[in-house]
Amino acid sequence: MNRYEDLKDFLKKYKRVIVAFSGGIDSYFVLKAAVDSLGKENVLAVTGDSPSLKSAEKHQTNILASEIGAEHKIIFTEEMENPEYINNPTNRCFFCKDELFTKLEGVKNELKYDVILDGTNHDDLSDYRPGFRASRNHGITSPLVDLKFSKNEIRETAKELGLTIWNKPSSPCLSSRIPYGQKVTVEKLSMIEKAEEVLMQLGFNEFRVRHFEIQQNGNEEKLKLAKVDISLNEMKNVLNEDIFSEIHCKLNEIGYDFVTLDMGGLKSGSLNVNIKSSQTNN
Fold first, then answer.
1. Contacts of 247 (CB under 8 A, 6+ apart)
2. Do 135 and 6 share a structural domain?
3. Which of 20, 29, 43 has its CA nearest to residue 131?
């Protein structure tokens, strides 16, 4: 737990902090450390709400913040009003984070907080994360980067601390399920959320539903295809005939014309595979 003490010591340089709280383990870990080092009266957890956030995830942020006694505020972000976000370029994440941090800066200035913290960890720097550029532009502090916390180290320490979501799978925003270049719409995000709710209700833990649209020759209406990605550890369950049939039927009801399964299993960030590594976090 010495590393956790390092994190608390790092945070003691501040008096009052805002934590950009997504509901994932990284930002929850930072929130816990902030409460432990500064006292709950000096910490505010803020969650950005938009159509790309699952309703279940938003609900859980309230529960998690209350578990450690942190004050929690939900603000609505408006990235869906930005054409640069809707057009879904490879740096879409930048526009989302830029909107979030702009709103957080407003809260920080209004309520007289010292700094905004986020949960970016050291491992994230090796992935394609255009949102990290937005955090740097806005002067966001990333203590897990500064102290070089890896994801595994965060999970192990969170487990020792008794945090209930220490092993919670990563869950990027719903827009990440739409291939770059295909527009982000509220309708698509709603379909993805409903499809992933089906998988959750069936007991699956790590999964994504990727949303693709296929142009038909001579027909303006596009066919909708759901590509289901399931972790390899759970693949045998999805191949059960009854479960496979239920997924197919329920996703058809949601509006998908085709439902496919990626036999290679879930690969986080799979839609980034064609992005040049030279673009990483630039």
1. 198, 199, 202, 228, 238, 259
2. yes
3. 20
What distance in Å separates the CA atoms of residue 14 and residue 71, rounded to the nearest whole number?
17
Residue numbers of the domain that contains 9: 2-161
First to last CA, the chain: 33
pLDDT digit string (tens) for 108-156?
999 999 999 999 999 998 878 898 899 999 999 999 999 999 999 999 9
Specify whether 96 is located in the same domain as 126. yes
Q: What is the largest CA-CA distance in the chain?
A: 65
Residue 196 token pair: 């992933």
Q: List, in order, residues 6 or more apart from 245 with CB less than 8 Å away.
A: none
Structural domain includes residue 277: no
62 with 146, same domain: the answer is yes
Q: Any idea what the CATH number is for the domain that residue 80 is in?
A: 3.40.50.620
Contacts of 153 (CB under 8 A, 6+ apart): 3
Contact 16, 114 (CB under 8 A): yes
| pTM as predicted | 0.91
Q: What is the rounded CA–CA span in Å between residue 222 and residue 185?
A: 14
| Euclidean distance between CA atoms 157 and 28, whole angstroms | 12
- Distance between CA atoms of residues 235 and 262, nearest Å: 10
Q: Kindly report, residue by residue over 25-47, the tens digit of the pLDDT.
A: 999 999 999 999 999 999 999 99
C-beta of residue 71 within 8 angstroms of C-beta of residue 55: no
Do 181 and 152 reside in the same domain of the chain?
no
Contact criterion met (CB below 8 Å) for 34 and 17: yes
